[in-house]
């Protein structure tokens, strides 16, 4: 998923718009996790980039994406660029 999301919508609070963005991202991740990974892999891992634009996007872990969206919104930007790529991965074994 590579998408620019507007951070403001007429008649809606900015915090609700950011919640809607996070909801759409989580929906994409849940949908991707339902797909069976290729043979030899156990699960999906998500590579994420967030920023004001595609050129300025920084790599983040999936758990940091929500906070990164809030950080971009705090700078006064009108939109946020979010890129999430699902890649197959092996399950980590606890020590």
Question: What can you see in these coordinates?
Answer:
The chain has 95 residues and is α+β, with helices and mostly antiparallel strands. It has one domain (2-89). The chain is built from two helices and four strands; from the N terminus they run βαββαβ. The chain has helices at 14-34, 65-74; strands spanning 2-6, 43-51, 58-60, 79-89. It has a four-stranded antiparallel beta sheet, with helices on one face. The chain is elongated, with a radius of gyration of 15 Å. The termini are far apart.
Strand order of the largest sheet: 1-4-2-3
Order of helices and strands: EHEEHE
- What is the number of beta strands? 4
Major sheet summary line: 4 strands, antiparallel
Structural class by sheet pairing and helices: alpha+beta
What is the CA-CA span between the terminal residues?
A: 33 Å
> What is the average per-residue confidence, as pLDDT, rounded to a whole number?
95
- Calculate Rg over CA atoms: 15 Å
Secondary structure tally, helices: 2
Query: Low-confidence parts, pLDDT < 50 over ≥5 residues?
Result: none
Overall tally of structural domains: 1
